[in-house]
Write a structure and sequence with these properties.
70% of the residues lie in helices and 0% in strands. The chain is mainly α and 134 residues long.
Length: 134
């Protein structure tokens, strides 16, 4: 996990009470970062211990997977936990120093910035070759 993900995980742990109203069963199918085994274990825990006790295990499991912040935020938005999703998005943006749009993956963001830097480089080389030397 990267720095931003570690800090977001700390933020989630400090604010666990915000997650207790989240229905775990709803979210499971909309968290692509979770494996089928993760989902099965969480469903079994949910059946034995109930929703409120399973929330902690869900968040713990998520934090061991790649791209978990974006997946969790998107799943929360899907089920209209918008205040919670906004809270996490705002915190994650502050940690990554970005204004990442909902639904934009890390790979797409890297591709965008790679293309942007290529364009800047191209424009700077054109400027250098067209400016006459004095």
């Amino acid at each position: 996990m990267g720095f931003a993900e570690d800090k977001l995980a700390e933020h989630v742990r400090r604010n666990m009470e915000l997650f207790h109203h989240v229905k775990v069963e709803e979210l499971l199918s909309y968290l692509p970062c979770l494996t089928k085994t993760d989902q099965e274990e969480l469903r079994a825990y949910l059946n034995n211990k109930g929703n409120q006790n399973t929330v902690w295990h869900l968040l713990d499991c998520l934090q061991r997977r790649n791209n978990w912040p974006t997946d969790l935020i998107n799943a929360l938005r899907r089920f209209e936990y918008t205040d919670l999703a906004d809270n996490l998005q705002q915190k994650y943006n502050s940690l990554t120093g970005s204004c990442k749009l909902q639904g934009i993956s890390e790979r797409e963001r890297e591709s965008f910035f790679g293309q942007l830097f290529s364009i800047i480089y191209l424009l700077s080389s054109i400027y250098v070759t067209t400016v006459p030397l004095v």
